[in-house]
Amino acid sequence: MNFIDIILKKKNKQPLTTEEIYFIVEQINKAPDYQYGALLMAICLNGMDKRETADLTNAMLYSGDIIDLSEIKGIKVDKHSTGGVADTTTLVLAPLAASCGLPVVKMSGRGLGHTGGTLDKLESIPGFNISLTREQAIKQVNNIGVVIMGQTGKLCPADGYLYKLRDVTGTVQSVPLIASSIMSKKLAVGADAIVLDVKCGSGAFMKNIDDARELAKTMVETGKRLDKRITALITDMDQPLGNNIGNTLEVIEAVEILKGGLKGDLYEVSLALGSEMLVLGDIAENTQQAREMLDENIKNGKGLAKFRELIITQGGDPSVLDDYSKFKQPLVSKEIYLEKGFVEAFDTEAVGRASAALGAGRTSYDMPIDYSAGIVLNYRKGDEYDGKKPFAVMYSDDKYKIKDAEEIFVNAVKTGKNRGEKTKPVIQVIR
Ligand code: URA
Fold first, then answer.
1. Where in the chain are the domains?
2. Which of 79, 166, 229, 308 is an active site residue?
3. For residue range 316-354, what is the model confidence (pLDDT) as tens digits?
4. Do domains 77-321 and 328-416 have the same CATH topology?
5. Model confidence pTM above 0.85
6. Residue 16 and residue 28: Cα distance in Å, rounded?
7. Ligand 1, atom 3, residue with closest C-alpha
8. Which of 196, 199, 264 is nearest to 236 (CA)?
9. Can you tell me whether residue 11 is helix, strand or coil?
10. CATH topology for 77-321?
11. Residue 123 CA to ligand 1 centre (angstroms)
12. Residue 80 is a catalytic residue
């Protein structure tokens, strides 16, 4: 088989055979980067059909370890978000779903660029340990029903290689490449069922509903071809999901939801995803029953108690749940005022970048982050802003960072005469 023939075939819009797709993955570290760059661009421009996408997913899946979770009793349901701003659903729904009896093994990632990462949020809890072995994770789930941790083993090294190349060759935006990248990693963590949260809007990879729908449908079909129970929700990322952006701030917002004192878009999306998880995990018969179970465990405190148990088991200080001043505190803050008017639109990606500029995010993997940095929004799309209260408050350890972040933020929010549509947080469910 010849790599150049495969590039030419895709350049000429022909589907690749299963053997050719496995060959592409086998040649990683043998064929030169420039051939992969050319092939990725041809895929990006000419696409792949559903069978090719499933083959690429499978080939990348088998390029590394597959975690065996069979020692955990019950149906293991994983959840994945394509990435957004103030997207803290895992911290709400992992303990909440576990409190309803669903075994939850969540392998999460760190934030990069404008998006936040669950591991960074959890590490803002003093002492919280995200580095567990497979054996420790299995023991913990069998004991308390939930674990949230970093990846163990060498999962999908082929995706690691291709993703890095895509990042520098302008080939990230491609439905088959994104779908196979996400699905290969989800399948490698050994779950029986998967709930996908496909973000759509100015803070997401998929900026419009047609692209988001195509990505969601492709991932659902790929999962089904590979015998997984799978559901995708398309959810709104035309504004930050929660009102708090930044690691500690997002943990606090999740805790407030678990305490029962906070509703809103983050609550809605968390419960919608959690309901699908309980149904796929055979804990509830339908999403309405599942939602009632989740809501009940917020009201009776079982969800919060499970989060406390999770923190204690993973070495964290649970007293932060009762006293937020136990989190690292920021050194400086600034109230941000904007032009009066209706909140018409957010450039959500830029809001995420403003939070990163305050110190909450990183632009390279090894950069330290400031857990207390971030932004609290007081207004959402469709609200009327009268200019009396600050529109937002920024927190950081560095007043110069606040200056940079403010400049990004004020250009990222549009207030004006038109009452912006209040968007629905859950746009569509694809089963
Ligand atoms: N997340 C992934 O893991 N891969 C992509 O290609 C895009 C988002």
1. 3-47, 77-321, 328-416
2. 166
3. 999 999 999 999 999 999 999 999 999 999 999 999 999
4. no
5. yes
6. 17
7. 182
8. 199
9. helix
10. Pyrimidine Nucleoside Phosphorylase; Chain A, domain 2 (3.40.1030)
11. 23
12. yes
